[in-house]
Design goal:
Length: 244
C-alpha cells in the first residue's frame, strides 16, 4: 500500500534555531504511529511543520500527502486536503458554541451545507460514546471546561470532521486514567483502513489502552529509533537517557 504521508529529510527552524535536523517518516492508511521524545526534542515542531505553521520555517525536505506535495501549501489548504491536528492547549472561544464551531468547521472542510438536526444527532451520539455532557453542545467552545473536557472536545472534533490523517499533539497530557481510556476509545472509533493517526507524546500512558503500529523516538531533532509497541515499554522502563 502506498504512503498516506511521506516526509523526506525535513529540516525546520524556529527563528534562527534549527529544531528538526532531517526527519524521515512514512505513514500508510490504516496505521497508528507514535512519536515519543523528551521535552524540546521537536515533537510538536514536527506536527506544526506538517500543517505549515508560519511560525516555523522549512529549510529542506518535502512533505507528500496522499500523493500530493503539500510542503508549501497554506495551513487552511492542508486542512482541506484532510489533515486534522488537535492541540496540546486547546483554545477557548467565548461566544461560539461547540455546535456552531463544529458546524462551521465541517462546512469549510467539506464545502457542503450542514443539515443541523442530523448534525446535532451525530454530535449527541459521539458525546455519549465519549462520556461528555450533552449540555456542552451549547456552551462556548472550551470556556470553563476542565482539562479533560477540552481534550475530549478535540477528539469529538476529530470524529465529526473525519480527516484522512489525525495528528494528536499531547492529547493525553494532564489526563487521569479514565479520561485517557475515553480518548483511546475515540481514537479506536475513528481509525479505519482508509485513514491514519499520528500521536505525539512524551510518555506512554495513552499506549496502555491503545494498540499502535509503530513507535518513533525523536531526540534532538532526529528520529533515533523506530520499533513496535514494545519500544514504548522499553522507554517507560529506561527513559530517554540512552538515546541522548
Amino acid at each position: 500500500m502506498s504512503n498516506l504521508l511521506e516526509i523526506k529529510d525535513l529540516h525546520v527552524n524556529a527563528g534562527e534555531k534549527e529544531i528538526l535536523k532531517g526527519i524521515d517518516l512514512d505513514i500508510k492508511k490504516g496505521e497508528i504511529h507514535v512519536i515519543m521524545g523528551p521535552n524540546g526534542s521537536g515533537k510538536t515542531t514536527t506536527a506544526n511543520a506538517i500543517l505549515n505553521n508560519p511560525e516555523y520555517t522549512k529549510t529542506n525536505g518535502t512533505i507528500i500527502f496522499d500523493g500530493e506535495d503539500i510542503t508549501e501549501l497554506r495551513t487552511d489548504e492542508i486542512a482541506k486536503k484532510g489533515i486534522f491536528m488537535s492541540f496540546q492547549l486547546p483554545e477557548e472561544i467565548p461566544g461560539v458554541s461547540v455546535t456552531n464551531f463544529l458546524k462551521y468547521a465541517k462546512n469549510k472542510i467539506t464545502g457542503q451545507p450542514v443539515k443541523i438536526f442530523q448534525f446535532k444527532d451525530e454530535l449527541k451520539k459521539y458525546m455519549e460514546e465519549l462520556n461528555m455532557n450533552p449540555k456542552n453542545m451549547e456552551r462556548s467552545l472550551n470556556v470553563g471546561f476542565s482539562g479533560g473536557e477540552k481534550k475530549k472536545n478535540e477528539i469529538l472534533q476529530m470524529l465529526v470532521l473525519n480527516p484522512k490523517l489525525a495528528i494528536l499533539d499531547e492529547t493525553d497530557s494532564g489526563l487521569d486514567v479514565d479520561a485517557i481510556k475515553t480518548v483511546s476509545k475515540g481514537i479506536e472509533m475513528f481509525k479505519n483502513e482508509n485513514n491514519a493517526v499520528l500521536i505525539i507524546t512524551h510518555n506512554t500512558k495513552i499506549l496502555h489502552s491503545l494498540k499502535v503500529d509503530y513507535v518513533h523516538v525523536l531526540v534532538n531533532g532526529k528520529i533515533v529509533k523506530t520499533g513496535g509497541q514494545e519500544l514504548a515499554s522499553e522507554i517507560e522502563e529506561n527513559g530517554y537517557a540512552q538515546y541522548k
